[in-house]
């Protein structure tokens, strides 16, 4: 059984713009599936639909065979622990009024199930936060700081720590490095790749940057105008049969 299955998903906004058109794909366990395309092509809308932050118009989204699309929050609650997200802007993702330790604890307090967790063990709040920060290569002392006291790279690592805190099956990474400088980008990508191996989590890695997607992913999808126009194994990126838009992205990549 596939971990995630997306079938014939359509999404149109109220003003009539078709954002997603017949989107189909599956995700496997412990896989990084990349999604690349220019800004405005529908990548982030797809992420919000997968997180049930926006309803889809047509189609289905299944987690291990269970439909998730268009459910109410109460019905979704048992599945929230399985799909977490790391988004583009860590400053917006972290509550400026909360210390980092409280932001880290939030998913665990809502959805955590210690009996099913294999890598992080809750004994007390401070120890749990220290484990999470160590996993993302941050000192435990940052737990008692506020977001404005951290650098951009540190804040994004803190949001990653929060996402892994309940050991989800899937993490949706929507442009997770686009707000960072080049050195921080490389470090965060290395960290994410190591965490996937360590925790066995699957990623949907969304980016406009083909080089980042190529570095992270085993399989790659290319989106243009809300349509997945190409999909292939990583090693087939430079094959002659690639879609013209993929070839256009490759020309910028090279």
Automatic annotation (TrEMBL):
Keyword Nucleotide-binding attached: yes
Biological process (GO), any one: transmembrane transport
SMART domains in the cross-refs: AAA
The keyword Isomerase belongs to this UniProt entry's keyword annotation: no
Pfam families recorded: ABC_tran
GO terms for MF: ATP binding; ATP hydrolysis activity
Keywords tagged on the record: ATP-binding, Nucleotide-binding, Transport
Residues that span the membrane, as ranges: none
InterPro entries: AAA+_ATPase (IPR003593), ABC_transp_ATP-bind (IPR050319), ABC_transporter-like_ATP-bd (IPR003439), ABC_transporter-like_CS (IPR017871), P-loop_NTPase (IPR027417)
UniProt cross-references to CDD domains, sorted A to Z: ABC_NikE_OppD_transporters (cd03257)
Domain ABC transporter: 4-250
Gene3D superfamilies per the UniProt record, alphabetical: P-loop containing nucleotide triphosphate hydrolases
PANTHER family associated with the record: TRANSPORT ATP-BINDING PROTEIN
Protein name: ABC transporter ATP-binding protein
Annotated organism of origin: Paenibacillus sedimenti
């Amino acid at each position: 059984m596939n971990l995630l299955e997306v079938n014939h998903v359509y999404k149109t906004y109220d003003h009539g713009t078709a954002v997603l058109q017949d989107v189909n794909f599956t995700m496997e366990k412990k896989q990084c599936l990349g999604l690349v395309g220019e800004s405005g092509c529908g990548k982030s809308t797809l992420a919000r639909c997968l997180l049930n932050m926006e309803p889809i118009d047509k189609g289905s989204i299944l987690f291990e065979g269970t439909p998730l699309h268009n459910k109410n929050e109460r019905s979704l609650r048992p599945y929230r622990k399985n799909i977490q997200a790391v988004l583009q802007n860590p400053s917006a993702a972290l509550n400026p009024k909360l210390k980092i330790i409280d932001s880290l604890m939030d998913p665990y307090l809502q959805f955590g199930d210690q009996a099913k967790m294999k890598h992080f063990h809750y004994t007390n709040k401070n120890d749990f936060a220290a484990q999470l920060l160590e996993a993302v290569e941050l000192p435990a002392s940052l737990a008692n700081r506020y977001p404005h006291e951290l650098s951009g790279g540190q804040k994004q690592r803190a949001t990653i720590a929060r996402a892994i805190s309940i050991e989800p099956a899937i993490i949706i990474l929507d442009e997770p490095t686009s707000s960072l400088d080049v050195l921080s980008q490389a470090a965060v990508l290395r960290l994410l790749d190591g965490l996937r191996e360590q925790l066995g989590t699957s990623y949907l890695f969304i980016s406009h940057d083909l080089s980042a997607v190529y570095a992270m992913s085993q399989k790659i999808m290319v989106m243009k105008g809300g349509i997945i126009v190409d999909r292939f194994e990583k090693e087939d990126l430079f094959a002659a049969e690639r879609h013209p838009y993929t070839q256009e992205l490759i020309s910028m990549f090279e």
